[in-house]
Design a protein that fits this description.
transport; 6-stranded mixed β-sheet; P-loop_NTPase; Rossmann fold; ATP binding; binds adenosine-5'-triphosphate; ATP-binding; 8 helices
Length: 239
């Protein structure tokens, strides 16, 4: 007797979901004083919703350059980058920045919070840009700060918070518009072990609970080992 393995689509009745982001043959070079510097070469990979991917590689291998392209802050020199079904290659700036604001949240090593503004106000910034009404904004910012354990520091300004607390504010800000993709560039680089664990817990939670895709650039093996998958950059090439 032969047993047929059911076709995945027939078995579930659903089409497989395409990846949230797809990078194909992507290159990026810069011209400096008439000299061409090739940074990324023929990078190809994809990331699906619900996945946490760590991007690792030696200093200068092109990790931040790649993250800038994924975040629609920069454009590839050649190749394709498709985000949420949109080929981003020929997008005009207005559409590109709407796609970025609606779909992508950023966390950086150096927090980049507004000084002299409260944690609540900082978390509200992307929602101001997204046209979210004031009351909704304040409620959501409070909920997000409570979720990262800062419900008691809503009115504190960045200089009144520790590094770990500032990064939690930055993370709450990144999540304020419920982005499909969270990009984090060395999010734990300036933090101690306990704060690093907390930030990674929150990032992983985004993928598990909200089905977001998370891409984390890191030098820290402990961070990389918590990812579902690792993309290694070696002299600008993905492995
Ligand atoms: N705007 C630019 N103009 C010229 N060269 C650039 C530019 N941006 C990046 N580079 C070069 O690209 C290379 C890769 O830089 P990138 O910051 O992406 O590396 P990285 O892997 O993130 O490094 P690190 O781990 O040290 O942060 C470096 O040699 C850098 O000097």
């Amino acid at each position: 007797m032969t047993v047929d393995t059911p076709h995945p689509v027939a078995a579930t009745g659903r089409q497989p979901t395409p990846p949230l982001l797809r990078v194909e043959g992507l290159t990026r070079h810069f011209m400096v004083s008439g000299t061409r510097i090739d940074v990324l070469h023929d990078c190809t990979f994809d990331v699906s919703r619900g996945e946490v991917v760590a991007v690792v590689g030696q200093s200068g291998s092109g990790k931040s350059t790649l993250l800038n392209v994924l975040g629609l802050l920069d454009e590839p020199s050649s190749g394709a980058y498709t985000f949420d079904g949109v080929d981003t290659t020929s997008l005009r700036e207005g559409r590109r920045s709407r796609l970025r604001g609606d779909g992508i949240g950023f966390v950086f090593q150096q927090f980049h919070l507004l000084e002299r503004r409260s944690a609540l106000a900082n978390v509200g910034v992307p929602m101001v840009l997204g046209g979210v009404p004031l009351l909704r904004r304040r409620t959501r910012a409070r909920e997000l700060l409570e979720a990262v354990g800062l419900g008691h520091r809503l009115h504190s300004q960045p200089h009144q918070l520790s590094g770990g607390e500032q990064q939690r504010v930055a993370l709450a800000r990144a999540l304020s518009r419920e982005p499909a993709l969270v990009l984090a560039d060395e999010p734990t680089g300036a933090l101690d072990a306990a704060s690093s664990t907390m930030i990674m817990d929150q990032l992983i939670d985004q993928s598990r609970v909200r089905d977001a895709a998370v891409v984390v650039v890191t030098h820290d093996p402990k961070v990389a080992e918590r990812a579902d998958r690792v993309v290694e950059l070696v002299e600008g090439r993905t492995r």
